Amino acid sequence: MMLMGCLCACRQRPLFYVYQPLPSGEWHTTDTLCFELAEVPVDGRYQVSVGVRTTNLYPYEDLWLVVERRDADDSRHRDTLCLQVNGEQGAGGLQRSGQQMSVWQTTGTVIHECEDSVATIDLTVQQMPVRLLVYHIMRRQSLTGISDVGVKVQ
């Protein structure tokens, strides 16, 4: 019984949680961010979430993304996600349509962070590594005000 409690508690921590900065301050339609999940401890169903950090320079309220999963055997799976990026400012975290959002201020710049789940996927030890590619599908060729994009698998 104690072992089951430990296993459940361990599963709460994300297996993979990485943010990549966009150093140029712009995200072009030709820029694809690649996140590689090298291994999973056990075969199972895992929740994939994408997070974005924006500044007050981001001109829109939403951000359309594609998250593409490429398995070791080169099979591909795509999902489209619309993040509500710039929520109203307030204390603590914000929540809109299932997304987790937070707002904080550093050196005069308001930073918005939002995260939303993309899909629940089945992963096996044998299919590793898995690459998760993220790119935007906004009409504008270049987006300003996006500082980081991240992926969480748990």
Describe this structure in words.
- This protein is mostly beta strands and 154 residues long.
- The chain has one domain: Jelly Rolls (Sandwich).
- It contains one helix and twelve strands.
- Strands 1-12-4-9-8-7 form a six-stranded antiparallel beta sheet, with no helix packed on it. The chain has a four-stranded antiparallel beta sheet with strand order 3-10-5-6, with no helix packed on it. A two-stranded antiparallel ribbon has the order 2-11.
- Strand 5 (62-70) and strand 6 form a beta hairpin.
- The longest helix is centred in the N-terminal third of the chain and has 10 residues, at 2-11.
- It is elongated, with a radius of gyration of 17 Å.
- The chain starts with a helix and ends with a strand.
- Mean pLDDT is 81; it is low at 1-9 and 88-98.
Proportion of residues in extended strands: over 45%
The number of distinct structural domains comes to: 1
Class by helix and strand content? mainly beta
Give the overall pLDDT as a whole number: 81
